[in-house]
Amino acid sequence: MRKTLTILMTLFCVMAMGQDAVKVVAKFKKGDYVVYDIKQTTTQVSDANDTHEFVIAGETRYDVIDADKTGYTISCKAQKWESQNSPEDDLASNLVKSSMTMLVGQAIIMRANLDGKIIKIENMDELRQKMEDYMDGLLDKLFSGEGMNNQDIISKEKMRNIMLEEITEEKLLESIDANDQFSLYGKTISTGMTINQKIAGIKFKTSYEVAPIQKAGVRTIKSSSVSDMTKEDIKSMIITQMEKMMPEMAETLKDSFDALMGTDIMKVEGTKKSSFDILDNGWVKSSDSLLEFKMMGSSTKSHTTSVIKECSWAK
Predict the structure, then answer these.
(1) 73 in helix, strand or coil?
(2) Distance between CA 276 and CA 152 in Å, rounded?
(3) CB-side neighbour CA atoms (13 Å) of 261
């Protein structure tokens, strides 16, 4: 009897979860466009308890320039980005700001499958050259200003090599896939479903909640992510970064890693909570996400919101 009840309860739970399952797919049309207002507030707390908060706000436009039987070609262009409270002599905040502003006015031509998932960057060579040029200018600025101590943290050459490793189509596709406007396309999602994913190089377990469609044709999907890093994952990630930035210390760290594992300096933790409002035409109406990291004694909190400011179907 107990076994029968257990089976029935399991079937009931599976059926209940399946009832609100939804596949997020694009229903784009050639000529569609949308402009998002985006705001990101980042708070960084160092291991010395120094706190920096800075805000970056701007607009990004997406245009569907082609739609055919295999998918969509979409142009993504950051129209403007403005920063507030960004310290000119802080390496971390300057890198965050530069990652947002380096391609202002430059179209990224993306190819999506029929679900809307981005699968290719059509103009990657052009983008790479522009990003390299911007990166060199940024590094010249960061490592040549009066009173700058960035060379004491990491050499200009090492920083350039690390940044170059990030300028690949694979990395850009990963970044787009984590972007709130495109992260759900192609996924079949139900309440309670859990997936494994990577955010900023850290392993996470992400669970979902699907709400019924509202009267206005808007469906809300929420996600909650918690870092899921083993001791070996953390060791591999930290030592890999140390070998790039400070190779002379990497060997010492390998020998003392186990002893340091229980301390804050070896702690890697993260959470992310997101909410997406999706229109019945497949476009994301608005999104809100809060990402928090604790790593090597420092913490970072990043709150990002986006909402449609202008679109082709509401003219």
Answers:
(1) strand
(2) 42
(3) 13
Is there a contact between 185 and 24 (Cβ–Cβ < 8 Å)?
yes
Within 8 A by CB and 6+ apart from 166, the residues are none
CB 293 within 8 A of CB 200: yes
The neighbour count for residue 70, using CB atoms within 10 Å, is 9
Q: Dump pLDDT digits (tens) for 264-296.
A: 667 788 999 999 999 989 999 999 999 998 877
- Tens-digit pLDDT profile for residues 105-152: 899 999 999 999 999 999 999 988 888 888 887 777 777 764 455 555
d(CA 151, CA 148): 8
The identity of residue 107, as a single letter, is A
Element (H, E) at 35: strand 33-45
Under a CB-based contact definition with an 8 Å cutoff, are residues 93 and 54 in contact? yes
For residue 130, the SS3 value is helix
Confidence of residue 51 (pLDDT cuts 50, 70, 90): confident
147: left (phi over 0), alpha (psi -120 to 50) or beta: left
User: What angle, rounded to 10 degrees, do the helices at 124-142 and 156-166 form?
Assistant: 160
How far is 125 from 64, CA to CA, in rounded Å?
21
Q: Whole-prediction pTM value?
A: 0.80
